[in-house]
Amino acid sequence: MTSLRRRLLILVAAVVLLAGLATGMVLRAADRADEANRPQAGGPAVSSGKLTLDRKNLLTFVNAAAGPHRTAVASVPSADPGAGRTASDLKCARFYAAAGTGVCLQSDTGVLKQSNRALLLDAELRTVRTFPLAGIPSRARVSPSGRFVAWTVFVSGESYASAFFSTRTSILDTRTMKLIPSLETFAITLDGKSYKAADVNFWGVTFASDDDTFYATLNTANKTYLVRGSVSGKSVTTLVENVECPSLSPDGTRVAFKKRVLSRTDLWREYVLDLRTLRETPLTERHSVDDQATWLDDDTVAYALPTEGKVGSTDLWSVPANGKGKPRLLIAGASSPAPL
Q: The organism sits in which domain of life (predicted)?
């Protein structure tokens, strides 16, 4: 056998082996997805139905309960979150909505790579525009007026707990369809001085009601900061340290956020920051919260926690924003809440 023929046979064998491994991986992933899509005894009542974003007194979310409607955008009455949920045909990894505008971040796993996209939605959950994403969906927000939409993706790594990760945060003007691909192009003022660094990352945007001001997390030099930004001014200014995934209260006076409680650990506590005094109030949730919380009203914060005993599932919990009271289970098998 000639040397060339031997090398060709080795190459063909390697290709066949890789194809077999890839096929096996796809089949195993399909088996896991099929199992997760089977209804489970004792699970919540979920039915197909019409869901619109211009209805009042609904709490929308991504359904995490096992069954055919898993990952579908669903809703329950705000006054009765334990009621049977209505699921739409839209499926998302992350979702948020306000003022009749929605954003859905999707991620499809392929043989060679993932396909990630952001869908801009109208009040009927119809896709207005699709934007390719540079990484894995992480956070999504819509401004109170519906004019601005923001999303954050992981460009590498799998989570904030990873030692090596990079984020990219974008803001879309839904009136002009002008996209700011990355907040890393914004001018930074840190501790009163102009600041530039190669390791700058942003994530977790939350919008004020003036259609310009936003808050977000800035990470640089192994520190995280709460920043206040201006969309029109393309600039951000640091306010305080050790703030991640901020969420602005409806009255615009406070920010709920997760605070790393031990250096170099993946443990976070949920806090509320008064923007006028910069006073921090720890909330009574004792579990580590790795989520961007959502304000249900001016007095209550909601967030996702892993479902006990179920890998890959989360439950929505709520807690008073004044640092008193007790956490309570809001919706089992759910994530990405958005009150309408």
A: Bacteria
